[in-house]
Amino acid sequence: MSKVWFVTGSSRGLGRGFVEAALSRGDRVAATARTPRSLDDLVTTYGDLVLPLSLDVTDKASVFESVTQAKEHFGRLDVIVNNAGYGLFGAVEELTEQHLRDQLETNLFGPLWVVQAALPHLREQGSGHIIQISSTAGVAAFSLGGGYCASKWALEGLSETLAQEVAGFGIKVTIVEPGSYATDASESAIQAPPNPLYDAARQAYSAYAQALDTGDPAAAGQAMLKLADTDNPPLRVFFGTQSFPMLQQVYADRLKTWADWHDLSVEAHGPQAT
Questions:
Q1: Residue 168's domain spans which residues?
Q2: Residue 186: what pLDDT?
Q3: 24 confidence band (pLDDT: 50, 70, 90)
Q4: 243 annotated active-site
Q5: Separation of alpha carbons 190 and 234, rounded Å
Q6: How many domains does the chain have?
Q7: pLDDT tens digits for range 252-271
Q8: Domain-located, residue 258
Q9: Of the residues 134, 151, 159, 243, which is catalytic?
Q10: Residues 6+ apart with CB under 8 A from 249
Q11: What are phi and psi of 102, to 5 degrees?
C-alpha cells in the first residue's frame, strides 16, 4: 500500500533524496520548500503524485495551513519528515543572540509546529510515523558548532519525549542522525562573525571536514523507504558510516566519567534513608 508523505526542506540535499525515493516507487508526497519553483521538475516528472507547497517552517500559521492542505488533498498522512534546517557555525563567544534565536526558530520550533499540526490527523487515523532529521551533532558536540548542536540536542530531547507520549495512539517517532553527506547544505549555512582567537579551531575543523567520507543522498533516500516501511522502527538510527564508531567512543567516555565521579555524585545526594 502506497504511503503519503509530508516532507519539509524538499528542494535539495537529503530532503530531495527522500522525496525522490518516495515518488519513484509510487508514493504520494506533499513536498515543501521556501521557493516552490525548485520543485517544478518533480511535478513535471511525477504529476499528481507530488503536491508542491510553499513553506517557511518558522511561520507557524503557514505550517498548520500546509499540513491541513496536504491532508485534505491526499486524504491521509502516513510519514512526516522534518528535514528543513540549516547550520549555524562559530565559537560560542562569537554567536549573537539573534543568530541563536534564528537557529532555534528553524531547527527546533519548525519541527515543533509541524508535529503539532500533524498530530491531530495522525491520532484520528490511529497511525503515522514522525521522522525527525537530527544529526550526529545531536548526540556529540563539536567545536564551532555550539548553536547548531544546541538546536539538534533540543530536537532530540523533544522527540524522545514525543515518542513516549504518542505511542499509545499508534504513532511512531524516529530520530535520524545523519553524518556528512554530499549535499549543497553549505550554501544555507550561517557563519558567525569570526574572532581571530578561534582561527586555529577553524583550521582544525576545516581539515577534519575535508577528510570525511561523505554519503550519497540517493542512498539515504532508499534507506528512508526501508525505515518508513518498518513495522517497529527504532527511536534513533544513524545514516552514514562515520557516526557509529565515533559515538561508541563518546558514550564510553561519558560512562567512564560518570563512574569515576560516582563517589561525588553520592556525596551530593546527602544522607540516604535506611
A1: 4-244
A2: 54
A3: very high
A4: no
A5: 32
A6: 1
A7: 999 999 999 999 999 999 99
A8: no
A9: 134
A10: none
A11: -65, -40
Name the residue type at position 25: R
What does the pLDDT look like over 43-54, one tens digit per residue?
999 999 999 999
Distance CA 10, CA 65 (A): 17
- Residue 228, CA distances (Å) to 3, 11, 21, 225 in order: 9, 20, 11, 5
Residues 222, 230: Cα–Cα separation, whole Å: 13
Give the pLDDT score at 272: 86
Distance CA 231, CA 96 (A): 44
Residue 148: active-site member: yes
Task: Determine, yes or no, domain membership for 109.
Answer: yes
Residue tagged active-site, from 148, 159, 198, 243? 148
CATH number of the domain that residue 92 is part of: 3.40.50.720
Beta bridge partners of 130: 80, 173
Residue 194 lies in a domain: yes
- Strand order, beta sheet including 171-178: 50-54, 28-33, 4-7, 79-82, 128-133, 171-178, 236-239
Residue 259 counted as domain residue: no
Please spell the DSSP secondary structure of the chain, one letter per residue: ---EEEESS-SSHHHHHHHHHHHHTT-EEEEEESSGGGGHHHHHHHGGGEEEEE--TT-HHHHHHHHHHHHHHHS---EEEE-----EEB-GGG--HHHHHHHHIIIIIHHHHHHHHHHHHHHHHT-EEEEEE--GGGTS--TTBHHHHHHHHHHHHHHHHHHHHHGGGTEEEEEEEE--BSSSGGGG-EEPPPPGGGHHHHHHHHHHHHTS-PBPHHHHHHHHHHHHH-SS--SEEEESSSHHHHHHHHHHHHHHHHHHTHHHHHHHH-SPP-
Choice among 152, 159, 172, 180 that is catalytic:
152
The CA distance from 38 to 57, in Å, is 16
Specify whether 226 is catalytic. Answer: no
